[in-house]
Design brief:
Distance between the termini: 33 Å
Helix content: 10-25%
Strand order of the largest sheet: 1-2
Largest sheet: 2 strands, antiparallel
Radius of gyration: 14 Å
Number of strands: 2
Number of helices: 1
Structural class: mainly alpha
Strand content: 5-15%
Oligomer: single chain
Shape: globular
């Protein structure tokens, strides 16, 4: 397994209040994988990572958690 910075969390840039949020990124493989992928979340935006979702929705959940704003839905969705 490949770990986020040796197992230590990365920190977001400071927000308007100077707060930095720690986060991790983990990979199960160092190459492409076929089939489904399990994703879990805790913290802001985690409620959007539930059930079967599109991979771009994971990005939307991360964006919401990091920046406190929803991204507009993709055209045709």
């Amino acid at each position: 397994m490949l770990w986020s910075d040796g197992g230590k969390p990365w920190l977001t840039p400071p927000d308007a209040h100077g707060q930095r949020i720690p986060y991790y990124i983990l990979w199960a493989s160092n190459s492409d994988m076929g089939g489904g992928t399990v994703a879990r979340g805790i913290g802001p935006g985690a409620e959007y990572i539930a059930g079967t979702i599109d991979s771009t929705d994971i990005y939307r959940a991360l964006y919401l958690g990091l920046f406190g704003r929803h991204l507009a839905p993709q055209a045709g969705r």
